[in-house]
């Protein structure tokens, strides 16, 4: 299969947005303002959404963002879900497939959502093995893993997050989906300089950027994917574009807003950064 490509002309990077069901009435306008779309693919994705995604892929380049592979869990993939993902992959011909570098829903341990991974040699072995299987399931397809937020620290950590991400990409022959909003949030949770973290990431691996607004509760940021991307995150985006080879930026919105102007404002903010025309305060 010959994969789609994302074009960005003489701009520093292409701009896309994560497509959600509540955006359907705004889709016609949004598609004129972005270069590509990203589809979130979970086990419970409705058939009507699959059909819509298939139609959208005939109009714009797309990428697939899986949410249910649990790439770090030391057990076999749910092959029913892998085959479902493969069906959508065949229908949409994406530029690449991404997933979170995490456990998914460790409910028996009282944890749910995307759970960060103990940064150990054992974890590297598990992730490498599972990526090898994904490469066989999706031959010739670029695979990316995304850094997630972490509100706690595993006692088992054997290396820094940046070193772990670099080794995952190297050993697993995958790229990095760098969520810079997550980098900022983790820098607050764990009291580090986000730019030192960014400098430690091997620029070769960064294929795509996720960016979003967050909710601040008494100085604590939460990864809520709201609108109005803040300036501190836009500054980080500007730094990444200046210092890496990343060519695709994806705006995430999960606040279920139907205010078209708020989406346009986010797209235009990112566009100004991409064109090096954003005036920082």
Description:
- The chain is 37% helix and 21% strand.
- It has 281 residues and is an alpha/beta fold.
- It has a single domain, classed as Divalent-metal-dependent TIM barrel enzymes (TIM Barrel, Alpha-Beta Barrel).
- The protein has an eight-stranded parallel barrel, surrounded by six helices.
- Strand 3, helix 3 (79-92) and strand 4 (96-100) form a beta-alpha-beta unit.
- Helix 4 (121-137) runs parallel beside helix 5 and helix 8 packs parallel to helix 9.
Draw up the topology in text.
Layout: E1 14-19, H1 27-30, E2 36-41, H2 47-56, E3 62-66, H3 79-92, E4 96-100, E5 103-104, E6 114-115, H4 121-137, E7 142-146, H5 161-172, E8 175-179, H6 180-190, H7 194-200, E9 206-211, E10 213-217, E11 220-226, H8 231-243, E12 248-251, H9 260-274
Helix pairs in contact: 4-5, 8-9
Question: Which features would summarize this protein structure in a list?
Answer:
281 residues, globular, alpha/beta, eight-stranded parallel beta barrel, TIM Barrel, 12 strands, two-stranded antiparallel sheet, single chain
Number of strands: 12
CATH class: Alpha Beta
Oligomer: single chain
The CATH topology corresponds to TIM Barrel
Mean pLDDT equals: 93
- The helix-and-strand class reads alpha/beta
**Element pattern in H and E:** EHEHEHEEEHEHEHHEEEHEH
Terminal Cα separation, in Å?
46 Å
Number of domains: 1
- At CATH level 2, the architecture is Alpha-Beta Barrel
How would you sum up the global shape? Answer: globular
Query: What profile does the largest beta sheet have?
Result: 8 strands, parallel, barrel
For this structure, what is the CATH homologous superfamily? Divalent-metal-dependent TIM barrel enzymes
Unreliable parts:
106-111
- Main-sheet strand order equals 1-2-3-4-7-8-9-12
Strand content: 15-25%
Radius of gyration, taken over Cα atoms and rounded to an integer in Å: 18 Å
